[in-house]
Amino acid sequence: MSNIVPARYLRPLAVTNLVANIMIVVTGGVVRLTASGLGCPTWPRCTDESYVAHGALGIHGAIEFGNRMLTWVLAAVAITCWLAALAYRASGGVNGTRTVRLSTMIALYVPAQAIIGGVTVLTDLNPYVVAFHLLVSMALIGLCVLLVEVTRQPDTWSADDPLRAPEQTRRLAWLVFGVGWVVLWLGTVVTGSGPHAGDLDARRTGLDPQVWSHVHASAVYVLVALTVGILALAHRQRLEGVRRAAGALLLVELLQGVVGFVQYFNDLPVPLVTVHMLGASLTAATLAWVVVRAQRTV
User: Torsion-angle region of residue 204: left (phi > 0), alpha (psi -120 to 50) or beta?
Assistant: First the structure.
């Protein structure tokens, strides 16, 4: 089995895994933003009589069913990456066990996410279940980033590694990561109280979206300040890897801020909210990148 996919494909497949998981967040956002969340009104079937969408379900059924089919693409990429990781370990690659462990976790996450997605349909798009579904995707993106980094630097990643960043930097990186995840969670709260429910009849949280938008924005300000702090610290300590990751995170945060303010003052137009969903995925990726790079100086 370990020779089915050559070990040399591990890194390209790890990158493909990351890109695919980011894109499925965006396509999932399109499902919600086009009010197609219940385009297939049940799960695992599309309707009680059929596993596939049919003409009577209209464009909403086609959009929802299409997003479900993308899960199979995601699964195929994850399994192929796992096979490449097995080949890498079998070939004696450094840190092969870690790559297998990570690729296994990613592969198992895909069916788990499909089940959670099914629960969102069966609960008529309960906003809290939808939020959990999104946050699990963000965690999966973080795992993909870790796998990409391990394939880039296949070292031992041990606690006494001389290439580790100083403890002060590592702690600040984890603080940035924690606050970043608070920001992502608050984003789901705002979304769950806003107008884009995924279906015209889906219920909302009942929370005041304007109030929670301000709370979300306040957390973003804290995150930006911390990101500037770790960027300055990495520059002073000459930690090039951390500096690049923190710089990428800051850029994503600033772009997300611009998109967030523009969409807020323009009543949440669908195209901008879609871009904001992409930005949230990139935020999750760069948050993970900062933490991972803080374990290494290169």
Answer: beta
Check: CB of residue 110 under 8 Å from CB of residue 78.
yes
Q: Which letter does DSSP use for residue 272 in this model?
A: H
Q: C-alpha 183: how far from its chain's center?
A: 13
Residue 163 phi/psi, 5° resolution? Answer: -90, 5
pLDDT band at 276; cut points 50, 70, 90: very high
pLDDT of 184 reads: 96
Residues with Cβ within 8 Å of 60's Cβ and at least 6 positions away in sequence, in order, are 34, 35, 36, 38, 39
DSSP string, 176-221: HHHHHHHHHHHHHHHHHHSS--SSTT-----S-HHHHHHHHHHHHH
Closest CA to 90 of 204, 3, 196: 3
The CA radius of gyration of the chain, in Å to the nearest whole number, is 20
CA 8 to CA 90: how far, in whole Å? 12
pLDDT tens by residue, 288-298 = 999 999 986 54
pLDDT in tens, 124-155: 888 899 999 999 999 999 999 999 998 886 55
Residue carrying structure tokens 């990186």: 173
Q: Cβ distance 131 to 210 under 8 Å?
A: no
The amino acid occupying position 278 is L
Q: Domain locations in the chain? A: 8-157, 159-298
CA dihedral 22, 17, 36, 184 (to 10 degrees): -30
Residues 6+ positions from 83 with CB-CB distance below 8 Å = 1, 2, 4, 5
CA dihedral 129, 147, 253, 250 (to 10 degrees): 160
Query: Could you tell me which residue, 60 or 233, shows the higher pLDDT?
Result: 233
d(CA 2, CA 152): 20
